[in-house]
Amino acid sequence: MLNVGIIGASGYAGEELIDILLSHPQARINYLAAKIDMSQPITKIFPRFKERTALICNNEIDLKEVCTKCDLVFLALPHTVSMEFAPKLLAAGKKVIDLSADYRLKDVSLYEKFYGVKHKDKARIKEAIYGLPEIYRNRIKPAKLIANPGCYPTVSLLALAPLLAFNLIEPESIIIDAKSGTTGAGRKAALEFFFSEINEDLRAYKVNAHQHMPEINQELSFLAGKKIAVTFVPHLLPVNRGILATIYAKKSNKVPPKIGETSPAKLAGTKSQSHKLLDIYKKFYKDELFVRVKEEKEFPNLKDVRGTNFCDIGIHDDKDKIIVIACIDNLLKGASGQAVQNMNIMYNFPEYTALL
Amino acid sequence: MLNVGIIGASGYAGEELIDILLSHPQARINYLAAKIDMSQPITKIFPRFKERTALICNNEIDLKEVCTKCDLVFLALPHTVSMEFAPKLLAAGKKVIDLSADYRLKDVSLYEKFYGVKHKDKARIKEAIYGLPEIYRNRIKPAKLIANPGCYPTVSLLALAPLLAFNLIEPESIIIDAKSGTTGAGRKAALEFFFSEINEDLRAYKVNAHQHMPEINQELSFLAGKKIAVTFVPHLLPVNRGILATIYAKKSNKVPPKIGETSPAKLAGTKSQSHKLLDIYKKFYKDELFVRVKEEKEFPNLKDVRGTNFCDIGIHDDKDKIIVIACIDNLLKGASGQAVQNMNIMYNFPEYTALL
Amino acid sequence: MLNVGIIGASGYAGEELIDILLSHPQARINYLAAKIDMSQPITKIFPRFKERTALICNNEIDLKEVCTKCDLVFLALPHTVSMEFAPKLLAAGKKVIDLSADYRLKDVSLYEKFYGVKHKDKARIKEAIYGLPEIYRNRIKPAKLIANPGCYPTVSLLALAPLLAFNLIEPESIIIDAKSGTTGAGRKAALEFFFSEINEDLRAYKVNAHQHMPEINQELSFLAGKKIAVTFVPHLLPVNRGILATIYAKKSNKVPPKIGETSPAKLAGTKSQSHKLLDIYKKFYKDELFVRVKEEKEFPNLKDVRGTNFCDIGIHDDKDKIIVIACIDNLLKGASGQAVQNMNIMYNFPEYTALL
Amino acid sequence: MLNVGIIGASGYAGEELIDILLSHPQARINYLAAKIDMSQPITKIFPRFKERTALICNNEIDLKEVCTKCDLVFLALPHTVSMEFAPKLLAAGKKVIDLSADYRLKDVSLYEKFYGVKHKDKARIKEAIYGLPEIYRNRIKPAKLIANPGCYPTVSLLALAPLLAFNLIEPESIIIDAKSGTTGAGRKAALEFFFSEINEDLRAYKVNAHQHMPEINQELSFLAGKKIAVTFVPHLLPVNRGILATIYAKKSNKVPPKIGETSPAKLAGTKSQSHKLLDIYKKFYKDELFVRVKEEKEFPNLKDVRGTNFCDIGIHDDKDKIIVIACIDNLLKGASGQAVQNMNIMYNFPEYTALL
User: Fold this and answer.
1) Taking burial as the number of CB atoms within 10 A of a residue's CB, which of A199, A226, A243, C92 is the most buried?
2) What is the pLDDT of residues A189-225, one digit of tens each?
3) Nearest by Cα to B7 from B81, B110, B68, B64
4) Which residues lie closer than 8 Å to B99 by C-beta, 6 or more apart?
5) Residues of chain D with C-beta less than 8 angstroms from the C-beta of A233
């Protein structure tokens, strides 16, 4: 039985972690902490867990206690707070899955620009493994510190990876028009998130200036083997959870290079490239349980992924452009579900445990 | 042209007052103030008013300026703040319509108990006229200080007035199960009103302890001529605006007394009392434009009153009980619409001006 | 491994049954049918189940196939359709859990009045066991035919059972003001359920005329040992799922009779009756996993039961009245969750299997 | 006083027309008809209009009656139905504002392809004036037959007109990612629009295949003076009303040509083109009351245009791309508001009458 702790248990990501881990047959939550006034049963904060757990959520973090009780710690903390705890936990030999952005960006100057603070643990950034299993599974397995991906990056990267892997689009043409439910903003008191301000509304925000943009650019650049800068416009939806990204890119006219042992030509056989997009996606993700590729002329919608760890992807071939529409539950595949998926990989549990 | 000012212009009630008064042919908004960081065009706070007004909203209240510019001032302030401004405005000869609760409760001890502060202007409480036109129109006309009714009281009183006027129910049996949209809570940053906390949820709150309960009791007692204490359970709905109250009361078996020149017998002719409820309501409200009585087996719903100053009422005769279902837009008939209705009465404008 | 079938798999209750049963370690869905144009993978109807099941949903019901493949059949059919299938399945020795109302009402004349059709299987009505485990667990265990309770009755009965069991209220005073999400209406094309007609709206419907009222009356009468007729006003909420019932009743002044070996006096010790309501509820439900009694001044809300099989109950002692507020997920404890709970009881699986 | 009729009064566009026209001081609704079972007061269909009108809505259209009673007729009918009525009304000397698509597309083959029917009144297509006042005001004034623009085209054209007029973008690069509330689909019984199917969901639909796409292409081509084919992906939002379009286009590097007496150089003075986008928009729309251009880094949102006839536009200069975000109320500026704006122009009423 793996003993885990959750620091930052009172937010939306923390809530989902608790929900998943209470159903996990090989893991046991052994420690909870959050920025709250006083220690209390977690069911005071989330009454929905009553009858499922009697765990206490601590208001102060006793690192010795954490280290005694846990083998693995989830940090579901705001950005800039995780980097205070991660080094100490790692030094004590614990494994850490960090749901914040603190260890995601390899270029510390981008982190400092987009998050507005000095990084306090620069040395460890390059050791952190970006926890997107569909791309980095092999590196996740032995990792000590997982930088769990952001929600927008997760959906964007899964949507674009096959196109970049096979060089099917012009990388500089990528436009990501993303729409997210409000839990993506975290659980906080703010007038702009007052029910009546969000309900019956839709707005774009941080137009081409969102902090997830450099994360998307970094990972797409790794995939493409060259520097990519996307156009990224997030919108705030009047729904609780879910992200849908509608992505536009210009087709490339280059010959797709071989990647590993596979090439798109092989994948797609003799059929014309334009009709073979779906096949390429299906083969690219054929061993990935949590990515579901839709059939032709079918497109994903939020309700089919809500409450699941799936990423659904639909593809439309539009003359000189490719349109990819993808969606996830921002709190699951976009945060806590993916964090547990990473845990399952690290500890050799079946990857889908507690996630189906 | 009547010159009016609005103090507390940045809240939901203030926003609606601006919206209504910008369309009022006989009134002109001449002053706006709110608790904001710096003076700014009101369109910075409410961009929806762009192209309709260039008014500046002040961050500090210059009473001299208010008094120079305005004949009538609307106080759309939080409870306990109005009573600081009303006395000074009245002393300067201005008329005041106060949308807060500060002058509604005649029994100051109830005010102090339910609002948790000492009252600072007790003397003026008894001069204030409770601004429910359908009941107090004649007193509103010459009034200097209007205590504009609360949203729950408005819908409850209009729903119950005919029954109490004609002594048709046992007053101690009244149960008001009310459901309100979130704007009723005011416009404020609070975790409990975060979109994802309210959306897809319903909850009862302040069960039989809401501050509007003594106001309902006071006014019902006036109507009944004896002390009444209702059971009152408000619920928070995941909608922006609107209140629907479902009200239950036991039928009285007393002979209805004459009221003025009318008696239920006269009203209802020879038909049996139980079948004549609708007729009683229709006659009670026959001169009231803003009260609409539904036909038999029809019941009101929020969307038909949303954005209007109407109160819709449906009645069901249930053996020994009467069920009354009534609804209003909490920001209009329950606040700003009624405030303008009161203004129209005070200044002899047609009562519906800017309200249809 | 228990083999089960679901007839009526394309509705909301069917969808939830599939979701639960796919996670059930001791049961396997072996047959699906629904009123659809042609047989097709269930994932065509509910794409959310992709990668979880490859089951085909049949468009015609082949009873021989059902009986070969299944030990137990869930009928998630519209009212009046179940009674065509149940007799044949039972005759073939299969067990049946019927989610419709066809076998709930013992008084067939009430069924025929409220559902508007002749009953075709009257003889079997009295054999059917009303599947509310908290009340009828012992009868459910050996049952062949379960009449799975309606959503409004489930929440109402669980809320009122302790009060009636201990004779704490005047039965004729019960008022149930219930609010339900739209999935309660079933999954169907109807203008009145068009998104824009429901969203931002609230309405009462079937005021004291809802078909669940005789079901509530029947079961409350059994509990009270005398004929009860409640006042019941359902409302349609702009949420997908969940029912919250606010229930009002007058306190009884009778001495509570002994029930089994327990009496309220024993339960509540020496404290005054009025303060002991919570204790009575807690003891009444102390062995019931799926009923959670809130602490004093705490009340349940939809989001804490959404997606769960719990019924949350809060109690308020209001002088001469008792107010009980209870809620459930209408599709789980109010339909499919309770159906699986019944199955678990019938087959000696731990009662919570696949339900936590 | 202008006498107007509305045919198709029972849909969402009809409802809004009634709402606006009841407040119009120079127009009087004199005739209503709709596809309903029997003639009835319009307040039976829309109880919200009670106390505002006693008009009867006819279930059969008596053309003689229409022509006797009305000078102008609004056709708020489904596509393909308008073309049956318009010819007869025009022949009788009446003016017609058609809210359907029947007279919008100049290329009848596109109409027949996208609407799936033969056109029955081809000759009149070229006489119809496309009723977008900001572009075609002079032609609208004397028009007999107005083809009132679709909702998506209205917001898209107003957002793009300045860029095309001044040749600032590469026309073939235009991507329109549009998000619409559900009333855009009309008022109809359909499972896909059942509340629970839309609520908490988001989906793309008719990806690059929506019937409004040829309309957008036609009008953009007129503006650009060359054939344009946009990429157009509409999405269905869980809100009642409003459309927000996020539009992406590549900057042109051509020298902007003179247009009329104005050129962008003149408009923008000596400042660099990229910083002058806002100025260009502001000057392009400086005489247009119903187009509001946001300041730098400000973007429009649905709630600021809901219930109004405004189109709000925000612009972002993104290196080689321009991002334009625009929104309207789909039922007002996108349908009935614009129809009345056209009527006001045709009859020389102040253009904003009944629309502010």
Assistant:
1) A243
2) 888 999 999 999 999 999 999 999 999 999 999 999 9
3) B81
4) B8, B13, B74, B75, B76, B77, B82, B148, B335, B336, B339
5) 246, 323, 325
Give the D window 303-332 contacts with B, CB below 8 Å: 303-305, 307-308, 310, 312
Of residues B329, B323, B315, the one with CA closest to residue B281: B315
- Listed in sequence order, the residues at least 6 apart from C294 whose beta carbon sits closer than 8 Å to its beta carbon are A47, C300, C312, C313, C314, C315
Q: Per-residue b/e over C54-64, b at no fewer than 16 CB within 10 Å? A: ebebbeebeee
- Contacts of residue D340, defined as CB under 8 A and 6 or more positions apart, other chains included, come to D17, D20, D21, D24, D353, D354, D355
Neighbours of C255 (CB within 10 A): 10
What is the reported pLDDT for C261? 41
- Rg of chain D in Å (alpha carbons): 20
Positions of chain C with pLDDT under 50: 257-264, 268-274
pLDDT tens-digit readout, B81-111: 999 999 999 999 999 999 999 999 999 999 9
Lowest-confidence pick of B188-202, B243-257, D270-284: D270-284
The CA angle B41-B42-B47, to the nearest 5 degrees, is 105
What amino acid occupies position C10? S
Whether B151 is a known active-site residue: answer: yes
Give yes or no for B242 touching C (CB within 8 A).
yes
Q: At D332, give phi and psi (nearest 5°).
A: -105, -90
- Per-residue pLDDT tens for C225-278? 999 999 999 999 999 999 999 999 999 976 554 444 444 455 544 444 445 899
Residues of B in contact with D312 (CB under 8 A): 47
Q: Which two structure tokens, joined as six digits, stand for A234?
A: 């997030």
Distances (CA, A) of C227 to C150, C166, C172, C323, D291: 20, 16, 9, 21, 66
Residue A25 in contact with partner chain C when CB distance is under 8 A: no
Average pLDDT on D113-124 reads 96
The DSSP symbol for B192 reads G
Give me the residue label for tokens 């674009």.
Answer: A160
Q: Give the tens place of pLDDT for each residue, A270-317.
A: 444 445 899 999 999 999 999 999 999 999 999 999 999 999 999 999
Q: Do B51 and D289 touch (CB under 8 A)?
A: yes
Do A301 and D175 lie within an 8 Å CB cutoff?
Answer: no
Looking at beta carbons, which residues of chain A come within 8 Å of B195?
182, 193-195, 197-199, 238, 240
Interface predicted TM-score of the whole assembly (ipTM), two decimals: 0.94
In the prediction, which pLDDT does A253 show?
Answer: 78
Q: Are D150 and D103 in contact (CB under 8 A)?
A: no
Mean pLDDT of D78-105: 96
Alpha-carbon distances, residue A307 vs A16, A221, C339 (angstroms):
10, 30, 22
Residues within 8 A of D (CB atoms), C 160-219 only: 181-183, 187-191, 193-200
A contact chains, 3+ CB pairs < 8 A: B, C, D
Token pair of B312, please?
């819709």
Contacts of B303 in chain C (CB under 8 A): 197, 200-201
- Give me the phi and psi of C49, to 5 degrees please: -90, 0
* In the block, residue with structure tokens 């006489």: D127
Alpha-carbon separation of residue A342 from A18, A134, A222, A339 (angstroms): 15, 10, 20, 5
Taken in order A125, A129, A132, A136, the sign of the CA dihedral is positive
Q: For A156-189, write each residue's pLDDT tens digit.
A: 999 999 999 999 999 999 999 999 999 998 888 8
Between strands A72-75 and A129-130, the pairing is: unpaired
* CA atoms of A135 and A62, how far apart (whole Å): 35
Does pTM top 0.90 for this prediction?
Answer: yes
